[in-house]
Structure formats: structure tokens, C-alpha cells
């Protein structure tokens, strides 16, 4: 799979390899499910992971498809978006 995440940046992954599959395996080994996972992303390669996670969080600078799939949109990566999501969904509301 090839993704253009910025005008000057191309990401490549072997066909069929997705972050969501790796996270599913990790969660299974920990005895947990996707409802226990918060995942943050901004690009097309994050889309399956955002859909898989119990709490899919799109960064403010995410592509529209990721924002649409996410349960929550946080600030962009230049304004502590991941940290704000961790505070909101893990530190303040651990359910």
C-alpha cells in the first residue's frame, strides 16, 4: 500500500499490512478487545485503525475520511492533539 501523507512524503507498507491488524493481535494477547483501545490518526493509512478502535480519534489535521470515521476529532498535531485526547478519554474519563 502506498499513501501520500504530505506533498513531500510518501508512506509504503506491504499490501494487506494494517495497523489495525497488529493492534488486534496485541489486544488479543493481552486479553482485551477494541473497546479498550484509543487510537489517534490523521492519514488514510490510519483509517482501518480508527474504525477498529473503541475510541477512534482523528487529529485536527486529518484527511476528511479519517475525521468522518472517528468518534472524536481532537486538536492538530501542532497543538497537542494526542495529549488532549489522552487527558479527555483516559485521565479524566477512564471508562
Automatic annotation (TrEMBL):
Keywords: Hydrolase. One of its GO terms (molecular function) is phosphatase activity. InterPro entries: HAD-like_sf (IPR036412), HAD_sf (IPR023214). Signal peptide: none annotated. Transmembrane segments: none annotated. Gene3D superfamilies: 3.30.1240.10, HAD superfamily/HAD-like. The keyword Transmembrane helix does not apply. GO terms for cellular component: cytosol. The keyword Nucleotide-binding does not apply. This is HAD-superfamily hydrolase, subfamily IIB. It comes from human gut metagenome. The lineage of its organism: unclassified sequences, metagenomes, organismal metagenomes.
Amino acid at each position: 500500500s502506498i499513501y501520500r501523507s504530505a506533498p513531500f512524503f510518501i508512506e509504503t507498507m506491504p499490501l494487506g499490512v494494517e495497523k489495525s491488524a497488529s493492534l488486534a493481535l496485541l489486544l488479543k494477547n493481552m486479553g482485551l478487545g477494541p473497546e479498550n483501545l484509543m487510537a489517534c490518526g490523521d492519514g488514510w493509512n490510519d483509517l482501518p485503525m480508527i474504525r477498529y478502535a473503541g475510541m477512534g480519534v482523528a487529529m485536527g489535521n486529518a484527511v476528511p475520511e479519517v475525521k468522518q470515521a472517528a468518534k472524536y476529532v481532537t486538536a492538530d498535531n501542532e497543538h497537542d492533539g494526542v495529549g488532549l485526547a489522552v487527558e479527555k478519554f483516559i485521565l479524566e474519563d477512564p471508562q
